[in-house]
Design goal:
There is one protein chain. The protein has seven helices and 18 strands. Helix content is 26%, strand content 31%. By secondary structure, the protein is α+β, with helices and mostly antiparallel strands. It has one domain. The strands form three sheets. It has a nine-stranded antiparallel sheet with strand order 1-15-16-17-18-14-13-3-2, sandwiched between helices. The longest helix is centred in the middle third of the chain and has 24 residues. A hairpin with a 2-residue loop joins β13 and β14.
Length: 340
């Protein structure tokens, strides 16, 4: 029987020694940068790539109709299926549009070909709607072009909540996600000089991210920074800082997978930077500080949460950061880092 990705707290256990796949994270080969536009600075992580073709991204698979994400009637649980012949990488923070409410997926997974239907945990990023929106199909989701553009939202979704009873964990996290969607919309409205809340659904994060004024401003960040992430075939990840403060980072098993994810990641980072354009700006962090951020959780014990198909999430914590690693017996696929 497969272990559901929905069970993200009750199945956790402390990592002691489970083999090389779950060993302490190794340091990266090299960090370069920063490349800066306005208040967003990007650093690139260089390293060896896993050989072989990369998996499809969720966005690619939904567009090609080789994957489906379906409604289940529960806000915090969806159903996902790989219908195709290639594995699919799903990243925590991916936003899926449509259904009865837009959602964000809470775990990173590697779906094998012909996976069958499996549950996946989600949080609503559109408060209030529970029916079809315009001509959308309320039973499933049409695409995934965005990632959540807020470190606080990522923390609410993934970071342990030790002071919250397990019976209330999901509801507390969901409220925090809603609160941070509203805060992100408010900050973007201030930065743009007008609301980004869409008439079709004022609470929808996805529709706010599609605001044309925001898209135009975001294009300037993308034009300045996107090419830097495509220069080297050894770039496997990145870290970004907003207003001089390290925010978060993403690292992948290969340059090929990073390149697939890079446009969505950069859009989200640029959106977050735009939302904080009016905040005080600090000094751009040196590379040594970024290296410390990546390495600070490397030797910490991990808490392992089994997901599906032999894939687990390993959570590590230091005084200054969280890291979340998606791995299987074949090795790690993705590592995400959040500054506290």
């Amino acid at each position: 029987m497969r272990i559901s990705a929905l069970a993200t707290s009750s199945l956790a256990f402390v990592l002691t020694c489970i083999g090389a796949a779950y060993a302490a994270q190794s340091s990266t080969d090299r960090i370069s940068g920063p490349v800066t536009h306005d208040n967003l600075s990007v650093y690139f992580i260089h390293g060896a790539s896993k050989s072989g073709p990369p998996p499809l991204t969720l966005g690619e698979a939904l567009a090609a109709k080789t994957a489906e994400v379906r409604e289940t009637g529960s806000v915090n649980s969806l159903e996902i299926e790989n219908l195709g012949d290639n594995p699919i990488f799903v990243q925590a923070g991916d936003v899926v549009k449509g259904g009865r409410q837009d959602r964000t997926l809470t775990v990173s997974l590697l779906l094998p070909p012909k996976s069958g239907r499996i549950p996946i945990a989600s949080f609503c990023v559109e408060h209030g709607r529970w029916s079809a929106r315009n001509a959308e199909d309320p039973t499933k989701f049409s695409g995934s072009t965005s990632s959540v553009p807020s470190k606080e939202m990522k923390m609410a979704m993934q970071a342990p909540q030790p002071s919250v009873p397990s019976s209330m964990d999901t509801s507390v996290r969901q409220q925090k996600v809603w609160d941070n969607v509203a805060k992100a919309q408010d900050r973007l409205g201030v930065a743009l000089g007008g609301t980004v809340r869409a008439a079709a659904s004022e609470s929808s994060l996805q529709l706010a991210l599609e605001d044309q004024r925001l898209a135009t401003l975001r294009e300037a960040y993308v034009a300045a920074l996107k090419g830097a992430g495509e220069k080297g075939n050894d770039i496997v990840g990145y870290v970004f800082a907003v207003n001089g403060q390290i925010n978060s980072g993403e690292v992948y098993q290969s340059n090929a997978l990073f390149r697939k994810m890079w446009p969505k990641l950069l859009d989200a980072s640029a959106t977050e930077a735009i939302s904080h354009r009016n905040d005080a700006k600090g000094t751009t962090p040196p590379i040594a500080m970024v290296a410390d951020f990546i390495d600070t959780t490397a030797d910490r014990p991990g808490t392992v949460t089994p997901l599906n198909f032999g894939v687990s999430r390993i959570t590590r914590e230091s005084d200054s950061a969280w890291s979340f690693e998606t791995a299987s017996a074949e090795g790690w696929v993705h590592r995400s880092y959040l500054a506290k």
